[in-house]
Amino acid sequence: MPFSSFLSSLLLCLLGILLLHGAAVTGGCFSMEREALLDFKAGVRDTRNRLSSWTGHHCCTWKGVTCDTTTGHVVMLDLRNTNFTDDWALRGEGMNSSLLALSHLKHLDLSFNNFSGIRIPEFISSFKKLRYLNLSSTKFMGGIPARLGNLSSLYVLDLSSALGFACPVDNLDWLSDLTSLKHLDLSGLKLTDVPDWFSSVNMLPSLQVLSMSSVGLNTITASVAHVNFTSSLTVLDLSYNNFNSTLPKWLGNMTSLTHLYLHYSGFYGVIPDAIGDLVRLKELHMPGNQLTGYLSGWLEQMTNLITLDLSYNLFNGSMPSSSVGKFSNLTELYLRDNSLGGVISEVHFENLTRLQVLDLHDNSITISIGQSWIPPFQLRYVDLTKCQLGPQFPEWLQFQTQIEELYLADCKIAGTMPAWFGNISSSTITDLDLSNNQIGGKLPSSLKFTKLERLHLESNRFEGPLPTMLPSTLDTLYLSNNSFIGQLPIWPHVRFVTISDNMLDGGLSSSICQWTYLEYLDLSKNKLLGEIPFCLGKSLQNLQFLDLGNNCLSGEIPYTIDFLSRLWYLQLKNNSFSGELPLSLKNCTELQFLDLAQNNFVGSITLWMGDNLQQLIVLRLRSNMFSGIVPWQLARFEQLQILDLANNNFTGSIPHNIDFNPKISTMDDPRLYDRWGEDACE
Ligand SMILES: *[C@@H]1O[C@H](CO)[C@@H](O)[C@H](O)[C@H]1NC(C)=O
Ligand SMILES: *[C@@H]1O[C@H](CO)[C@@H](O)[C@H](O)[C@H]1NC(C)=O
Ligand SMILES: *[C@@H]1O[C@H](CO)[C@@H](O)[C@H](O)[C@H]1NC(C)=O
Ligand SMILES: *[C@@H]1O[C@H](CO)[C@@H](O)[C@H](O)[C@H]1NC(C)=O
Ligand SMILES: *[C@@H]1O[C@H](CO)[C@@H](O)[C@H](O)[C@H]1NC(C)=O
Ligand SMILES: *[C@@H]1O[C@H](CO)[C@@H](O)[C@H](O)[C@H]1NC(C)=O
Ligand SMILES: *[C@@H]1O[C@H](CO)[C@@H](O)[C@H](O)[C@H]1NC(C)=O
Ligand SMILES: *[C@@H]1O[C@H](CO)[C@@H](O)[C@H](O)[C@H]1NC(C)=O
Ligand SMILES: *[C@@H]1O[C@H](CO)[C@@H](O)[C@H](O)[C@H]1NC(C)=O
Ligand SMILES: *[C@@H]1O[C@H](CO)[C@@H](O)[C@H](O)[C@H]1NC(C)=O
Ligand SMILES: *[C@@H]1O[C@H](CO)[C@@H](O)[C@H](O)[C@H]1NC(C)=O
Ligand SMILES: *[C@@H]1O[C@H](CO)[C@@H](O)[C@H](O)[C@H]1NC(C)=O
């Protein structure tokens, strides 16, 4: 056969194949399937025009549609809303069974769209070839159709939050027919009423991933005859349930597990040694239960661990180097809020070259590490709050260049701040807390951390002037209870500042008017002199909390105070303020706490108090020279719980309708109560 005729017969043959399907195929798409897709499109609301490519004949090229390259049938419909916001969701009010024509469908993903008006359509169970079904966060109403059990080819079933919040599921019997299932996610469904949930999932011999997080489970069988998926299950997530049970021993039979998530699930008691058989675990998360016992006897063999989170439990004993210390892949270690004790030394860390997170917050652990130790790791997150770390400053920190958060509060560190301190992870650190130690010395005049957002140095022995240059990222600065002296610098970016209980002197100069982002300022218990600058009101319009109590300030309250329209806390007690209060004070309508006690204020209170300060909870005017009558409007301040007018020059009588029923015991803001308590007995 000459080559040309060979070619033409090949063409003919190809044409024949095309013709065979030809009746239905136009432009690589079966017309029946195209019609079905168009019907589907017509039935959904698509505010963001995500289906705008769904026009013309070539349905296999439409966005989200995939056809089999050989047969031309639509095999995959991926309409996942990757923007997660409701705005981008398709709304399925009018979705009907037209999709059934896609009889070759293997993969259907409708996740994060909004079907809140309709039930999960029964017709989904007719896609005989379906292997992947993702209805995550679709918020259908009603229950789960039992006929889903007909999808016997299903590998992956993700029904996480597929139903609206209040829709309970009454049984999971239909699961037992999904014998091919490898991945099952039921998280966020309401399974409280499902009887014997474990028997239903135990029918799935090939299961690899099981997620049942936040489903309201409150029972877990203590003993089962046989766990079907012991050799297949790698991921088990039962977190955020309320089992109120000890850990079942059979968990230890799932020896293929690499990921076990049991956050806040109501488990209590001693960890069974059988858990120690889960030697392949890489991720073990059990925070927020009431588990007790030692970190030995079960932990030693889990040498593959990458993350170990046992926080918020009741573990005791020490942290043995024979377990945690040899997990050379360990990256994140969370043991915070337990009852651990003992001593941790360099030996514990010698093989932890990959450690990035070390959280031992609030245990009774002593960390005893030589001053010349060079750590094998670079930490990212360090919380050693309340560990015994001092008295010497931990020198090994100077080799850590990647730390983002460093919490060393209450660590019994004493002595002077080392010179290298200003360089600790200076280009990465955002949070630094050294509060409640006995650290002394001066701060450098310029803090060079380029990303620092929060700095806690309160309750130490710092001295000398305040730093004049702060990183522009720093918005929270706690320096109370130290021995700082001198003036307030210009800190243009700060929002929350406390420098209470120091030895600041000099005036409350107008430099403070440049702290224009300021919301919270506590300068109480210093030796500040002079007047409140006139510019304060107009400049600090975000101010909500101002405490200048127990200083030596004088002069009048500037009338510009009315610009502080968000102010809810104003504490000026025990200064030498004088004059009448400005009428504009009545504009500060958010005020809940006003304490002007122990000053030299004069004049009538009727005018500024007016009717406006309806939010007042605490009003203290004690020991001034206010005069005139006590305004009858006070009786209308329904929130008022503490009223102290003693030791003034008021005339007349207390308005008889004031409700003198102190409600102190019902006050729910301890800050208010403390401050009131300070000199309640004077
Ligand atoms: C599905 O809805 C479309 C448009 O809303 C309609 O044209 C079609 O007849 C419906 N199909 C079925 C099977 O109900
Ligand atoms: C998600 O939203 C962004 C911005 O609103 C838009 O640019 C993007 O195309 C959206 N992606 C999808 C898949 O809709
Ligand atoms: C289902 O879709 C969501 C996103 O829409 C995704 O996060 C999730 O991993 C998917 N489930 C499975 C099992 O693939
Ligand atoms: C979903 O759609 C319904 C009405 O169709 C609407 O009330 C609801 O706010 C939407 N969003 C979510 C997240 O349910
Ligand atoms: C589909 O499921 C229903 C309910 O579980 C059942 O009655 C029916 O026989 C099943 N159909 C097929 C073809 O398996
Ligand atoms: C294990 O699964 C098989 C079928 O999947 C089932 O027949 C059997 O009852 C299951 N065993 C248990 C103990 O549930
Ligand atoms: C767990 O494993 C042990 C030892 O292999 C076996 O004797 C026991 O029957 C298993 N238990 C379950 C519930 O599968
Ligand atoms: C847990 O179970 C005990 C009895 O075993 C019961 O007294 C307790 O109230 C339960 N706690 C919760 C939170 O259900
Ligand atoms: C650590 O992880 C690597 C892969 O990143 C693996 O090859 C190695 O076996 C693991 N080491 C241990 C002790 O588990
Ligand atoms: C660290 O690894 C070395 C070498 O594998 C080993 O000899 C030593 O015991 C390990 N240290 C700890 C604390 O496990
Ligand atoms: C204070 O209130 C008065 C009227 O009650 C108003 O004229 C004045 O503009 C207010 N001041 C501010 C700064 O809003
Ligand atoms: C107190 O009031 C009386 C009469 O109202 C007045 O004579 C006296 O000067 C006032 N004392 C002070 C300290 O303001």
Automatic annotation (TrEMBL):
Its main location: membrane. It is found in: Cell membrane. PANTHER family: LRR RECEPTOR-LIKE KINASE (PTHR48063), OS11G0565920 PROTEIN (PTHR48063:SF90). This is Leucine-rich repeat-containing N-terminal plant-type domain-containing protein. The keyword Acyltransferase does not apply. Keywords: Cell membrane, Glycoprotein, Leucine-rich repeat, Membrane, Receptor, Repeat, Signal, Transmembrane, Transmembrane helix. InterPro entries: Leu-rich_rpt (IPR001611), Leu-rich_rpt_typical-subtyp (IPR003591), LRR_dom_sf (IPR032675), LRR_N_plant-typ (IPR013210), RLP23-like (IPR046956). It holds the Pfam family LRR_8. It is a single-pass type I membrane protein. The keyword Cell membrane applies. GO terms for cellular component: plasma membrane. Belongs to the RLP family. Residues 1-22 form the signal peptide. Residues 32-68 form the Leucine-rich repeat-containing N-terminal plant-type domain.
